[in-house]
User: Which sequence fits this backbone?
């Protein structure tokens, strides 16, 4: 088995190692939830303070022009674009992922008149499913469900000439399993439907290429370190931009917002997907982290991410084998089919996560019975992986489920 010293020497050779210094990480903590809320970049507090004190405090409304507040959805979108294989003018930053899913799906449906089915993944993150459910109920569509699980209907079975659009997550939030985006998009297009991707668990974790996709959405508070509730984003393929309708057409997406016309005329391009006033302070935090992201070599990031997740799987195999620990790996062993997280099923998953936190290893729990470890390769080291695997094995040996403290559920799990 690899030693801690060997992990240290892998860290010394890590071409991305300098990035760790750009983040504030609490001492003594192994933070494995960059897939939920990314770590704070050291440069962010100063950038937000500048926006508060100078742009807001001194320049007041002049900052809409002078500090570029008005254009933040587009300028920030243009900075996110290279992280998902998109070009300038193709991405708009704003709202939450949920709202962008609504905008994307409701804009996709009229592109396929006469088709009344939305294909939705049973295993997708709750909000993706809820938004589709809401659209189907209010706009009169049918939802056709597919899933990753054994026996669940697959994509090819679901695709028919009645399908208007398909919404899938590139990387599954529970298992970390990854779709082949290009091949899925091609299959969906071959059936004449529109493809919408949720990139929450892949952008900033690996190179992503929207390719031929029609729409994509994602958040920036996970791997992209934009901060809690940071603006999300929406990609709209250039071929659709001048024909699609934003269902939440607000004045920020109007062609002449300061003409205050009584009727809506969409702005050109992706700007029509803007709706209301942007949360300027949140964009300041996000842009501080994008200063880091524009220097990241995403191919190297993916190499390191796979090295870390593979190392974790190997160590857990050795230190806490299924026969002894009760841990069942639910993440694909094949690196090609994996995102940047590793999840195990364990009947006592919740107390295990709470006991790990007491030892400074921060992971989370997801129903059903899943212990989830996210590996943000920009700031994690091989030694962190070693320490986390060791702590996991020790925690399970200590049977934390016997301790009532660890069974009590927190509001946010
Ligand atoms: C796949 C996926 N989609 C959407 C969301 C969240 O959407 P929102 O940004 O609206 O909270 C999450 C996580 O919070 C997610 O994992
Ligand atoms: N977005 C979150 C939130 O607002 C509160 C608590 C957690 C989150 C998360 O991001 C969870 C995450 N999407 C997940 O994969 O479970």
Assistant:
């Amino acid at each position: 088995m690899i030693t801690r010293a060997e992990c240290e020497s892998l860290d010394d050779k890590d071409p991305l190692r300098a990035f760790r210094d750009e983040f504030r990480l609490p001492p003594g903590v192994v933070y494995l939830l960059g897939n939920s809320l990314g770590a704070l970049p050291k440069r962010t507090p100063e950038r937000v303070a500048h926006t508060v004190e100078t742009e807001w405090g001194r320049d007041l409304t002049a900052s809409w022009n002078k500090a570029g507040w008005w254009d933040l959805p587009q300028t920030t979108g243009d900075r996110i674009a290279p992280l998902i294989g998109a070009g300038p003018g193709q991405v708009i930053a704003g709202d939450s992922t949920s709202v962008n899913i609504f905008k994307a799906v409701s804009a996709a449906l009229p592109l396929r008149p006469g088709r009344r089915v939305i294909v939705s993944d049973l295993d997708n993150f709750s909000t993706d499913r809820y938004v589709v459910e809401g659209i189907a109920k209010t706009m009169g569509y049918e939802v056709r469900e597919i899933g990753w699980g054994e026996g669940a209907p697959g994509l090819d079975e679901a695709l028919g000439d009645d399908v208007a659009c398909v919404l899938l997550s590139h990387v599954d939030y529970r298992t970390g399993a990854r779709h082949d985006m290009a091949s899925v998009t091609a299959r969906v297009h071959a059936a004449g439907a529109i493809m919408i991707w949720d990139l929450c668990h892949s952008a900033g974790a690996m190179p992503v290429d929207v390719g031929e996709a029609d729409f994509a959405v994602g958040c920036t508070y996970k791997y992209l370190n934009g901060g809690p509730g940071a603006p999300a984003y929406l990609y709209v393929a250039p071929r659709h931009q001048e024909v699609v309708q934003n269902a939440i057409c607000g004045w920020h997406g109007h062609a002449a917002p300061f003409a205050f016309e009584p009727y809506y005329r969409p702005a050109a391009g992706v700007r029509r997907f803007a709706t209301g006033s942007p949360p300027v302070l949140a964009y300041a935090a996000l842009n501080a982290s994008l200063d880091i992201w524009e220097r990241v070599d995403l191919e190297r990031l993916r190499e390191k991410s796979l090295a870390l997740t593979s190392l974790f799987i190997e160590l857990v195999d050795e230190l806490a084998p299924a026969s002894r620990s009760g841990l069942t790996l639910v993440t694909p062993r094949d690196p090609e089919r994996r995102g940047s997280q590793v999840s195990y099923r364990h009947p006592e998953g919740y107390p295990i996560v709470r006991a790990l936190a007491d030892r400074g290893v921060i992971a989370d729990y997801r129903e059903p019975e899943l212990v989830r470890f996210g590996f943000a390769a920009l700031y994690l080291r091989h030694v962190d992986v070693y320490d986390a695997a060791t702590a996991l094995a020790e925690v399970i040996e200590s049977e934390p489920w016997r301790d009532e403290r660890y069974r009590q559920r927190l509001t946010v799990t």
DSSP finds 15 helices and 15 strands in the chain. Residues 305 and 377 are 5 Å apart (CA to CA). The domain at 4-16+297-407 is CATH 3.90.1150.10 (Aspartate Aminotransferase, domain 1).
